Automatic annotation (TrEMBL):
GO terms for cellular component: cytoplasm. InterPro entries: PhoU, PhoU-like_sf, PhoU_dom. It holds the Pfam family PhoU. Belongs to the PhoU family. This is Phosphate-specific transport system accessory protein PhoU. Residues 29-115, 133-217 form the PhoU domain. Plays a role in the regulation of phosphate uptake. SUPFAM superfamilies: PhoU-like. Signal peptide: none annotated. Homodimer. It comes from Marinobacter adhaerens. Keywords: Coiled coil, Cytoplasm, Phosphate transport, Transport. Its main location: cytoplasm. GO terms for biological process: intracellular phosphate ion homeostasis; negative regulation of phosphate metabolic process; phosphate ion transport.
Length: 240
């Protein structure tokens, strides 16, 4: 995903201001692409017991942290220099909010990588990996769609991400019950199943952060804050 000049709210008298807003969106999307790839790779490292890949993901964490700090600084400089109003201000403020969610997605990918190494070292059955594959497919779709919604300023797509979050929560709860059954059947499964539960929890949190990004996209486009509201209320806002 890339941002084009048409993706910025509109042309301003200052071409430099246009370029600054475009650069902010582009850097945010670049960071989004990185953390999206990290989640995919972390799950792959887990499923394939690929310790080298898991270590690579863990080492990328500092790069994500640096990107967050750079984007925050860029956004604050735009506010100080341009004193944006209305939709431009919503764009800049939303990026500051959303970049924090991306950094936390990177943290969750690092956590999955850590458990991938632990589970690989245990070297036993892959109980719960089917659930991991299933939920990871959904949350990575949510993350991708939330970034796409941001790139295209598409509040309708953002709303679909919000709707998908409830399904992920339900799937997480069902997967946790399955793992609990494995632990009850054989105490030797407890340690491994607990690790897989933490992986599933990390994936569920990725879905939550994708939902947060989607909520901010709706705020950018519609000018109404839908955080802490129901999906039905968000649907009414998007439909206006």
């Amino acid at each position: 995903m890339t941002a084009s000049r048409d993706d910025v709210y509109g042309n301003h008298i200052s071409n430099q201001f246009n370029d600054e807003l475009l650069a902010l969106k582009t850097r945010f999307l670049k960071m989004g692409g990185l953390v999206e790839a990290q989640v995919d790779s972390a799950v792959k490292a887990l499923i394939e017991a690929n310790d080298a890949l898991a270590e690579e993901i863990r080492s990328e964490d500092k790069r994500v942290d640096r990107m967050e700090m750079d984007i925050d600084e860029e956004a604050m400089l735009i506010i100080a220099r341009r004193q944006p109003t209305a939709r431009d201000l919503r764009l800049v403020v939303s990026v500051i909010r959303m970049v924090a969610d991306l950094e936390r997605v990177g943290d969750e990918a690092k956590k999955i990588a850590r458990f991938a190494i632990r589970l690989s070292e245990e070297g036993r059955s892959a109980q719960g990996y089917g659930e991991v594959r299933h939920i990871s497919a959904h949350v990575t779709d949510m993350l991708h769609d939330s970034l796409d919604a941001f790139a295209r300023l598409d509040s309708g797509l953002a709303l679909q991400v919000m709707k998908a979050d409830k399904r992920v929560d339900e799937e997480y709860q069902a997967a946790a019950r399955t793992l609990l059954t494995f632990m009850m059947e054989d105490a030797r499964n407890i340690s491994r199943c607990l690790s897989v539960m933490w992986v599933l929890r990390a994936l569920e949190r990725v879905g939550d952060h994708a939902c947060n990004i989607a909520e901010n996209v709706i705020f950018m486009v519609k000018g109404e804050d839908v955080r802490h509201t129901s999906v039905e209320e968000a649907e009414r806002v998007v439909g206006r």
